[in-house]
Amino acid sequence: MTTATKAFEVGKTYEMSWVTSSSKNACKVLKRTKCFVTLDVERHGISRCKIHNYSMDDAEFALPLGNYSMAPCVGADDEIEA
Per-domain residue ranges for the chain? Predict the structure, then answer.
């Protein structure tokens, strides 16, 4: 496994994207370990999920609402000002 250049950082807020709509949710990083991130997802509550790596973008991503075909995704390269 390679180390991503863009990684989730505690205290920062990222934008979660939904596949089927232009709806966006803010996700604030509450805690982070080497393999997991704990996010406070706007309108969905707190979620602990596994960290994955993009191969093309060289950035981490997570699936805070579960892993299914149309699951929303939050990437470490989608940081927003909170």
Answer: 15-80
Express each pLDDT in 23-65 by its tens digit: 899 999 999 999 999 999 999 999 999 999 876 778 999 999 9
Structure tokens belonging to residue 10? 């505690």
pTM of the model: 0.87
Token pair listed for 35: 């393999």
Q: What is the dihedral of CA 25, 60, 73, 8, to 10 degrees?
A: -20
Name the amino acid, one letter, at 66. G
Taking the mean position of all CA atoms in its chain, how far away is CA 2?
Answer: 18
